[in-house]
Amino acid sequence: MGTPYAYGGGGPGGPGRGFCDDGNGFLRGRCAASSTVGFDCSSLVQYAYWPRTQLPRTAAAQYEATAHRPVARGELRPGDLLFWARRNGFICHVGFYAGDGRVLHAPRTGRNVEVVVPLDTAMPATEYRGATRAWRVCRFPLDLAISHRSGFNVSGCKNWKILRDCLQETASTTPSSRRHHAQPRHGTVKQQVRHHSDLPDPGLLQHPSRPALGSDHVGA
User: Fold this and answer.
1) 1-23 mean pLDDT
2) What is the C-alpha separation between 111 and 88, in angstroms, rounded?
3) Distance (Å, rounded) from C-alpha 17 to C-alpha 82?
4) Distance (Å, rounded) from C-alpha 29 to C-alpha 197?
5) What pLDDT shows up at residue 213?
6) CA angle 211, 47, 57 (to 5 degrees)
7) SS3 for the chain, per residue?
8) Closest CA relative to residue 203, chosen from 96, 58, 72
9) Rg of the Cα trace of the chain?
10) What is the pLDDT, as a whole number, of residue 194?
């Protein structure tokens, strides 16, 4: 779909140059991430929800920040977050549910941001951990954002704004009454994250010494 996967790359401001760390970011023996401008799985999610919902930087921290709002597989709606974990339970990958069994995600080094179907083909089915709802249900259809009709290309700022508007339900797409009722009961996700003293600041999580920013463990 245009924007490459870059381990450690990207953030609230958009795609960014990645880095290599502990075997991650390498492709065929060379560090591909350091010369690639793009997103990894969690920075893609962070960017799409920012600034209305300021999720932390890594997939593991994003799961912890939203785990209080789990979503059963049969109740998935566009914009919900999907998580995968290693055998030891550590959350290692995150993507968006795009409706009709599809997943929008940044998979691994050497690949681009993509939409895949069915859900179980995005990552190994045995590693699927579950889904959460980070903020609210998108009433602007995510299907439109990823259709050929809309010219959706993740490398274009204009079309990224379509996804961002969907996830944030901006004033131009959501009546004020709906926005009021959609407010979380206990503050924003950013405020909820602050209640977890063991979670580092999102900015610190972009440092190369921080592990598990993406999903290179699946064979990049």
Assistant:
1) 94
2) 26
3) 24
4) 38
5) 62
6) 25
7) CCCEECCCCCECCECEECCCECCECEECCEECHHHCEEECHHHHHHHHHCCCCCCCCCHHHHHHHHCCCEECHHHCCCCCEEEEECCCCCEEEEEEECCCCCEEECCCCCCECEEECCHHHCCCHHHEEEEECCCCCCCCCHHHHCCHHHCCCCCCHHHHHHHHHHHHCCCCCCCHHHHHHCCCCCCCHHHHHHCCCCCCCCCHHHCCCCCCCCCHHHCC
8) 58
9) 16
10) 32
Inter-residue contact 2 to 156 (CB < 8 Å)? yes
Joined tokens for residue 36: 């690639």
pLDDT in tens, 120-140: 999 999 999 999 998 755 544
73-84 burial, b if ≥16 CB within 10 A, otherwise e? Answer: eeebebbbbbbb
pLDDT of residue 2: 77
Give the largest Cα separation in the chain, rounded: 54
pLDDT band at 175 (very low <50, low <70, confident <90, very high): very low
User: What does the pLDDT read at residue 25?
Assistant: 97
Burial class (CB in 10 A: 0-12, 13-18, 19+), 177: exposed
Mean pLDDT, residues 150-157 taken together? 45
Q: Which residue, among 113, 112, 110, has the nearest Cα to 163 in the 3D structure?
A: 113
Dihedral, 179, 185, 190, 192 alpha carbons, nearest 10 = -170
pLDDT tens, position by position, 41-58:
999 999 999 988 889 999
**Torsion angles phi and psi, residue 142, rounded to 5:** -65, -30
Q: What pLDDT is recorded for position 52?
A: 86
Measure the CA–CA gap between 99 and 107, rounded to whole angstroms: 18
